[in-house]
Known about the structure:
Layout lengths: L1 H18 L13 H14 L4 E7 H4 L9 H7 L3 E7 L6 E8 L9 H13 L3 E5 L6 H15 L21 E5 L9 E5 L8 E3 L2
Amino acid sequence: MLHEDWILSYNKKMTEAKTDRLPYRLREPFLSATEAALFRLLNELMGKRYVVCPKVALSDLFMIVRPNENVHFFNKIFRKHVDFVLCDPSTYAPVFGVEMVKSIAKAGMRDADKFLSEIFADAGLPLVHVPVSDSYVAADLIALFQLALVKTGKTPSSLESDSVPNCPICGKMMVLRMHRSGTSEGKKYYGCMDSPTCSGVVPID
Length: 205
């Protein structure tokens, strides 16, 4: 009888302890398998060029002009995030947004993806759309970054050229090279020292 009373008393205490807990639980994992695969490749490619920040809230990235008058626009970004933001390592200013997109049956984009594209384009910030996959190819990812730059008019040629630049793709040192053939024959450019593994190029002429 004494043993049963002890068990009842113990169970009561455990129930009370559970009831006293705050209603929060840890979400696991923080990144899905596909997100983690892209995160690893982004860090590998960017090196020291950019800091890769995962799951950045849009309300931390963008501010609302005249918020009292534009409540509707705040509601459109509230509780929404972009999958990754690449930031300048010295200033932490955002340089690229990266959003993973799911393929859809018909041509076009989902409304959420369209809105994200619009808000980034309006801010002049390149947004890279990466199709969701179990694995990612570095060359394909580089091409998507280059496409995002072209869409915003921010091409590698707009970089400062008075000194040897870092590679805009992987952040490694660049080497002065010259085109040996084709329409650009004889023109100088900076190429990534990790070429052909990295296709980073900064034109000069």
